[in-house]
Design goal:
CATH superfamily of the largest domain: Intergrase catalytic core
CATH topology of the largest domain: hpI Integrase, Chain A
Radius of gyration: 29 Å
Helix content: 40-55%
Length: 394
């Protein structure tokens, strides 16, 4: 028989006969740990099916933790942005490796084991007593494991991606808080004399991310053509380390057209910086980026966020995050009738659907505007006006 079921102690094992090797020896592989004979028989049939399809994976005691740290992370590092690789490494080392699931053999990890792991993270978080993790953080860890198991399947280490069958906690996107066009004007008026006014204006009129603004170089700025190129971002990695990184997505590397007011603000900013450089003399640090401290050194992203929080409070506006300036820009643009594809391109989203899903709260007004425009085109402006006023037609 090509496969045999054998009882060993209180449990059952499946022995698969793989034929004869190059030296003429029989090759048999044991799969152990089945609670009942029926479970072992079922496994025997499945294993023989894998052999017939050429998808058989030999048993291996390599743990999930060792696979992730010794094989997977080193193998994928060349394909990931540095910040993404660092995020993966932190999630693996801080959460998966110390957990029970990390010590399981890679081939023995089950959907149930992953679900239990996610539940433990929600309840207790890390072993240092810092409390449970939120649903979004746990889903991020699930995403890392899903990718790792997918690669393990392609590499022939496991037969299926068990993360496909796991159930990470549901996460509802937090309510989005944005400023209206009028509130944006109030904010910009309140920071008109700020030495970083051009940065605040750039965020409001382009929707650029914090890292993209702080990573912007003068060689990426063409004030004559009123365009800037987004080619890098200054971001915070783990443990507060700041580094330059590529844009978040392939479409994140993009050219953005500028309005005259933003071009003028950038010209003024360049002139101000020239004066600061002259005043600093030998103490000037040429970091190459547009927005710096007075001595030319780059700005830490978290400090930039703190300055925004302070400026918003001084302006007496509702509290929003710095990243919500990006959302505010998109909301105003879509509400003004700018085509979603154009907004998506300016934001650097991977697809238009991401833009539409993220800013679905703008859809009702867009739907109404579309209905009014089409009605006016078909029925004529005079009829459309009469309908809006409540008059009956005919």
């Amino acid at each position: 028989m090509r496969g045999t079921v054998i009882k060993r102690g209180k449990k059952w094992s499946v022995v698969i006969d793989l034929g004869v090797d190059s030296e003429g020896k029989r090759v048999r592989r044991w799969h152990s740990g089945y609670e009942t004979k029926r479970a072992a028989e079922k496994a025997r049939i499945e294993l023989l099916g894998h052999v017939d399809r050429g998808a058989y994976v030999e048993p291996d005691k390599l743990t999930l933790a060792r696979f992730l740290t010794e094989e997977w992370l080193p193998a994928v590092r060349a394909t990931l942005r540095p910040t993404t690789l660092e995020l993966y490494r932190v999630n693996v080392e801080q959460y998966v490796v110390p957990a029970v699931v990390g010590q399981l053999p890679l081939q023995k990890v089950t959907p149930a084991a992953l679900n239990a792991f996610y539940a433990d993270l929600m309840e207790s978080g890390r072993k240092d007593g810092r409390g449970g993790l939120g649903a979004k953080s746990v889903r991020n860890i699930h995403g890392v494991l899903h990718k790792a198991f997918g690669d393990a399947v392609r590499w022939g280490r496991v037969q299926r991606n068990v993360a496909d069958l796991a159930a990470p906690p549901r996460w509802a996107r937090a309510e989005m808080h944005v400023w209206t066009a009028e509130q944006l004007r109030t904010f910009l008026a309140s920071v008109a004399d700020d030495r970083l006014y051009a940065a605040w204006l750039l965020a409001a009129t382009t929707g650029m991310r914090r890292g993209e603004i702080l990573g912007l170089r003068w060689l990426d700025v063409d004030l004559e053509q009123a365009t800037i190129g987004v080619v890098q971002a200054r971001v915070v990695a783990s443990y507060g380390d700041v580094r330059m990184s590529e844009p978040k997505t392939a479409r994140g590397r993009r050219a953005i057209a500028l309005d005259p007011a933003t071009v003028s603000a950038l010209r003024s900013h360049r002139a101000r910086r020239a004066g600061e450089k002259l005043a600093m003399g030998s103490g000037w640090r040429d970091s190459g980026v547009v927005f710096t401290l007075p001595d030319g050194s780059p700005i830490h992203p978290q400090r930039f966020t703190s300055w925004f929080d302070q400026a918003g409070a001084r302006a007496g506006l509702p509290r929003i995050r710095l990243h919500d300036l990006r959302h505010s820009y998109a909301t105003v643009a879509l509400g003004a009738g700018i085509h979603p594809k154009i907004v998506s391109e300016r934001l650097g989203h991977a697809t238009v659907s991401i833009t539409l899903d993220t800013y679905s709260h703008v859809s009702p007004s867009m739907q109404q505007a579309a209905a009014d425009v089409v009605a006016a085109s078909i029925l004529g402006p005079s009829v459309a006006v009469r309908l809006q006023s409540g008059d009956e037609i005919g």
